[in-house]
């Protein structure tokens, strides 16, 4: 029987292990931490009984991919929950905008910009199943749906600042800015629209669900299915050298530099250079709050949102992102807020809500962004401070220490600059192959990139299985 070792148990490592096992491979997963899950762990971080997601907290694209369709995760205990509003963006004075599942309802809330929003996102949403099929695989492929992909690509290639000019009013522009800012890139650079267009369209097509009971439920479901297929797991063991592994296949759910260290001298020189030059992006500074009664947003629809993007106008968000990528901490950073309890009321305890936040900060930021994050929430939710019962802080250093893939606090496992948006981790027909027979990279440093969708692992496992037939 063919054997495989998967190094790392994040969502991509787990997806790779399950995909290989389904094909009849004997798989062993090795994890350096004491618990499985990588970026989909959950814990009681603030108060007893109040479950917070440690990294990934809401899951665009998790329900519409080939991996999600291939396995019965619901049968293994995973239940998805959706908030009434997928994401929102409050502005000063109690105004703001909200994206709901329906394109038409969202457009109706955007006033005179609604027609333009519907003309753009209506056709993209109608065809998103075929578009997703194209962009969750390596870019160097013959598209099955070239016209659908071309329409998506025409928007994605633009700087977000340019695309935002199609809307006249601050509400629609800010709504798009919040989605685009997930790329951790200056909004005036080419391809800075790509992540925003994909995430906003996925919100209309699939929603931004949360996992009932915490993101750790995703890992538990995949692990349960994997165990049924004979996969074995080992925690608390760090793999430092490829020679430590004696299997036919090795899949590395690691950042490229770590992969280069593990593979060592067997790695071809050109691949080694590419992996060591791989660029990481800005960091995240995370604060979890226990909030009595939830966040008192002045913008009413934000109280119904699973995710709230906090940063003010498009121009403010763009200025903050530009500062962060230049290594400067903004006074008013872009803050992403997760209100998982809105979608999953079982997360609350006696009226106390777990509130998840992180600010975009410079890579390796050594300061404390807690005050800045709290001030941003207080700005758009007056009275927030008085409701906070407890906090839990994770700096960029702590994030990197807890997950070695998040270099400098980079929770995306790689910068989304124009080249790496399209070609990651290097320019290659098979971005999962390392150049060493039987050894593959399956982390979020490979296409399609960050998220708890598992598609990097799915794609890498399929590449590994194809290698066996050559």
TrEMBL record:
Coiled-coil region(s): none
Pfam families found in the cross-reference section: NAD_binding_8 (PF13450)
InterPro entries named among the record's database cross-references: FAD/NAD-bd_sf
Protein's name according to its UniProt entry: NAD(P)/FAD-dependent oxidoreductase
Source species of the chain: Nocardioides luti
């Amino acid at each position: 029987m063919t054997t495989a070792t998967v190094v790392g148990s994040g969502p991509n490592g787990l997806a790779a292990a399950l995909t290989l096992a389904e094909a009849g491979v004997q798989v062993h997963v090795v994890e350096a931490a004491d618990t499985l899950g990588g970026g989909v762990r959950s814990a009681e971080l603030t108060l007893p009984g109040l479950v917070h997601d440690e990294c990934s907290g809401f899951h665009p694209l998790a329900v519409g991919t080939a991996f999600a369709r291939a396995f019965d995760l619901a049968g293994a205990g995973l239940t998805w929950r959706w908030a009434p509003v997928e994401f929102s963006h409050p502005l000063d004075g109690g105004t703001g905008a909200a994206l709901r599942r329906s394109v038409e309802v969202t457009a109706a809330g955007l006033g005179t910009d609604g027609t333009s929003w519907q003309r753009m996102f209506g056709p993209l949403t109608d065809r998103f199943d075929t578009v997703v099929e194209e962009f969750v695989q390596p870019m160097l492929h013959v598209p099955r749906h070239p016209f659908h992909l071309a329409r998506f690509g025409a928007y994605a290639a633009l700087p977000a600042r340019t695309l935002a000019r199609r809307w006249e009013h601050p509400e629609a522009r800010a709504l798009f800015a919040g989605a685009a800012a997930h790329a951790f890139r200056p909004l005036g650079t080419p391809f800075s629209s790509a992540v925003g267009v994909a995430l906003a369209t996925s919100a209309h097509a699939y929603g931004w669900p949360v996992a009932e009971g915490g993101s750790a439920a995703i890992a538990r479901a995949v692990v349960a299915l994997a165990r049924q297929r004979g996969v074995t797991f080992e925690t608390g063991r760090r793999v430092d050298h490829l020679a430590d592994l004696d299997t036919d296949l090795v899949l590395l759910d690691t950042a490229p530099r770590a992969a280069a260290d593990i593979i060592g001298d067997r790695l071809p020189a050109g691949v080694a250079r590419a992996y060591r030059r791989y660029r990481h992006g800005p960091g995240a500074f995370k604060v979890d709050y226990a909030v009595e009664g939830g966040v008192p947003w002045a913008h009413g629809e934000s109280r119904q949102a699973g995710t709230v993007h906090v940063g003010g106008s498009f121009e403010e968000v763009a200025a903050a992102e530009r500062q962060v990528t230049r290594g400067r901490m903004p006074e008013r950073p872009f803050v992403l807020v997760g209100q998982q309890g809105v979608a999953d009321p079982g997360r609350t305890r006696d009226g106390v809500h777990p509130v998840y936040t992180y600010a975009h900060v410079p890579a390796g930021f050594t300061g404390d962004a807690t005050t800045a994050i709290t001030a941003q929430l207080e700005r758009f939710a007056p009275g927030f401070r008085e409701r906070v019962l407890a906090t839990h802080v994770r700096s960029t250093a702590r994030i990197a220490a807890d997950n070695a893939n998040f270099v400098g606090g980079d929770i995306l496992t790689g910068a989304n600059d124009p080249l790496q948006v399209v070609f990651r981790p290097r320019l290659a027909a098979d971005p999962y192959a390392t150049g060493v027979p039987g050894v593959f990279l399956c982390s979020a440093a490979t296409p399609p990139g960050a998220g708890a969708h598992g598609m990097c692992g799915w794609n890498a496992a399929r590449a590994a299985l194809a290698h066996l037939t050559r």
